[in-house]
Amino acid sequence: xxxxxxxxxxxxxxxxxxxxxxxxxxxxxxxxxxxxxxxxxxxxxxxxxxxxxxxxxxxxxxxxxxxxxxxxxxxxxxxxxxxxxxxxxxxxxxxxxxxxxxxxxxxxxxxxxxxxxxxxxxxxxxxxxxxxxxxxxxxxxxxxxxxxxxxxxxxxxxxxxxxxxxxxxxxxxxxxxxxxxxxxxxxxxxxxxxxxxxxxxxxxxxxxxxxxxxxxxxxxxxxxxxxxxxxxxxxxxxxxxxxxxxxxxxxxxxxxxxxxxxxxxxxxxx
Length: 270
Prior knowledge:
Helix 5 (177-189) packs antiparallel against helix 7. The protein is an alpha/beta fold. The chain has a 7-stranded mixed β-sheet, with helices on both faces. Helix content is 33%, strand content 14%. It is built from 7 helices and 7 strands, in the order E-E-H-H-H-E-H-E-E-H-E-H-E-H. The protein starts with a strand and ends with a helix.
């Protein structure tokens, strides 16, 4: 079996999470995807490259499997993150456009989901939880910055065009207000970009599950509209060097400011 995740242990209180950049699909699962599914359109394309070396001391954890295998950022019990709204589940049945991704009769059943949960979701989340505990033991706090992207226009999921920078803290409960403020201040000052706090994307399961500021663990999600860094939001989903370079300035600023707040919070803990 191929590796489930990559982990780099850093020296910063910041942990960068990448649950949706992986594209590995085991052959036996690939054969069950239909042509729509095999496009893997719902990948967070190139996000780990976009953030590379922006905060050299940060820990980094990246799932290598695709979200169609199982979604590492969903509740393992498959409770919806957004009740009453269209979304995709623990093992998606459709893509973000609401189109089926499995061959007829090959849709994952309960036993499939249980096996994938044990083989992929649990190891990724266990590694993240362990890294959070290690970082917290070293610094007194840990900050999970969960990195995401999505196409900017998806009528099945939201109306109109998504803002460029979508910051999620589950309504302000998953991190210290100063961490939220550091992120929003950078987004506000980023000329040419639209942003929102706790809009359509308020933070996935990772952000909501681990974000316990009272316990010294903070979590925040940034969902990027993919037209901020891709040449086109369609195959082959190529990264635009020019767009990426412009965006990386603001992402680096955001991470640096959050790290400064985290360092201050760490001192308060000591």
